[in-house]
Design goal:
single chain; alpha+beta; 10-stranded antiparallel sheet; 10 strands; globular
């Protein structure tokens, strides 16, 4: 999705609502395997537009002393559109700020693709960095490169193309 498409999709999402976000990014590989076209495709229930300081968990953490008393800000990022879009200071790349969804029964779907074909993670685990081989459900706040986003809620590249052609998908 382009930056404009991301901004349109974010504007259409209610702030803090649980929505489906899909993204695909290159897998972090060991030096001997650099250049292998292995990607990780994720589909996750997320929330957009949640201010970190307003979250109940953050407020409890600050009150108990588990978190710093004041927000120290984000290192290496500046807000383009608070609290949804960030820009990396070094690279200038745009990132979207996402929060894990609040429904516990919705699991993140992850698959690994080699040249677009699905492969078993176990078959390529030897080529991946250790950070890629961990398997746990993420529950916090994270940033995702806009260029990696494939779909936000009901908005994706196909939606815009079909609407322009006068075709709309029905579920």
């Amino acid at each position: 999705m382009t930056n404009d498409q991301i901004k349109t999709a974010i504007a259409a999402c209610p702030k803090g609502a649980n929505i489906i976000v899909e993204w695909e990014r290159p897998v972090k590989l060991r030096a001997a395997y650099k250049g292998m076209p292995l990607t990780k495709h994720s589909k996750m229930l997320c929330r957009v537009g949640v201010a970190y300081d307003n979250k109940a968990a953050t407020q409890v953490g600050r009150a108990s002393g588990d978190l710093p008393a004041e927000n120290a800000g984000l290192r290496g990022f500046e807000w383009e559109s608070y609290p949804t879009l960030l820009r990396a200071v070094k690279t200038g790349l745009l990132y979207i700020r996402l929060e894990a969804g609040t429904f516990k029964n919705v699991k993140t779907e992850t698959k690994f693709l080699l040249d677009g074909q699905e492969v078993a993670k176990a078959d390529y685990a030897h080529a991946m960095l250790a950070s890629e081989t961990k398997s746990s459900e993420f529950k916090g706040t994270f940033n995702c490169k806009v260029e990696s986003i494939l779909r936000i809620h009901e908005y994706n590249d196909e939606t815009e193309t079909n609407e322009a052609e006068g075709e709309t998908e029905t579920a």
